[in-house]
Amino acid sequence: MADGRLKAVAKRGAALPATALGTNLGLIVLGCLLLGLSRHLAGQMDHILFDYSETSLAALVTFLGAALLVTRQPVDRATLPIILVFAALCRLVFLMPRPHLSSDIYRYVWDGMMQHHGINPYRYFPADPHIAAFRDNAIYPHINRKEYAVTIYPPVAQMFYFVATTFAASLTAMKLTLYAAEAVTVFTLIRMLVLLGLRREQVLLYAWSPLLIWEVGSSGHLDGFLTALLALALLFRMRNQPVLTGLALGAAVMTKFYPLLLLPALWRRRDWRMPLTVLGVIVASYLPYLSVGKRVFGFAGGYVQEEGISTGSRYFLLELAHHIPGLENLPAAAYYAFCVLCFVPLLWWCWHLSASADLAAFLRPAAALAFALMILFSPHYPWYVLWLVPFVVLRPSFTMGVYLCVIFYGFTTMWAEPGAKMYFLSKWMYGAVAIAAILQGIYEGWLHRVLPLARLWPVTEEGKA
């Protein structure tokens, strides 16, 4: 009799549905943990209890746990505010401390400061004697390449720096402006999630991403602003607003050049308003800086040489090919030809969908173009991949998600150094991505018929079981 009652209780307990309250409590616990890890990174760098890789791994596991909660468990109206509050707190703990992982933000502040003094940022490198009077102890000593390189950043990035330093030429002002850009990204992603009929709470994939928290919240990278412009371009394209799409995409291109690759995906066939607007933004953005002539392109050429982009020495897949017997002397030109061949089917995919009545059909080829560029380009800095995150939010991809995770974690390990260590790290990261792609292909090919992921948890909206 007693055994029967125990079995009945156990059966009822096993059948109890998950609740939104449980989701929210779980998010609060995980949010506190993520906040604690952020504070640990921000305030204890000189005597850090855990090294970078241990801290990043803990943050990554916490984030993945939260991602499973908001995508697989019931949510209610309180869930989104919880997500946004902890997202803001995890960034604000980095507002005052100096960045430890990169010094790029000092160049941003310097460029903005020069413009407020009426100096074209493309005219002088920071150590030039002509502007020696502006050297200070807070910004100037920390600028990288200050002895020989003028700014590398395109005109819209310079305009952003000008705005960010309007009230104060400081790291704090620059970070606050970047946080505001991230708020735009979050709002825009929420709007698109609603249009796609997906949970708003899925924005956690961006808001709580440790990659964003570390690289924008802590290091203050320009890519936070770039991602906001990209998100706006995607939203305007989804709403079939070609001129606004062109304005946002053109501004993104003039912040960092590589989003130009997305133009074929965002273009609607036979509608030339968007590409013409992009061209107009590019031309117009250069006009205020043309007083330096050809030097308006800044240090871009020097950077291409320094980073091995022109010689091919930076590309992991090319280096991997050099380890194959018979391909030891494969030239960079052959690799570039291979890259072109990789993009041909993707561009055809964009063309095929460019006249689709489904206004969200462009998302998958756009994500594929961006992802392919990163795989082929082999970025040596994790902030280069931030622009992929909006695509993961809107169209979750297991392969791209694994890529972002291994990039974030890998570059916090001892192997993230040029040379043999970087080659080993790249083999590990690309191997993980290849395995993820195979598993995703197997699942999407046939396994989903017998094991739908939706069966793993009772997914309900607004807390209804």
From TrEMBL:
Keywords attached to this entry: Membrane, Transmembrane, Transmembrane helix
GO CC field: plasma membrane
TM spans (from-to): 14-37, 49-72, 78-97, 152-173, 179-199, 211-236, 242-267, 274-292, 333-350, 362-381, 387-411, 423-443
GO terms, molecular function: hexosyltransferase activity
Pfam families, per database record: MptA_B_family
Protein name per Swiss-Prot or TrEMBL: DUF2029 domain-containing protein
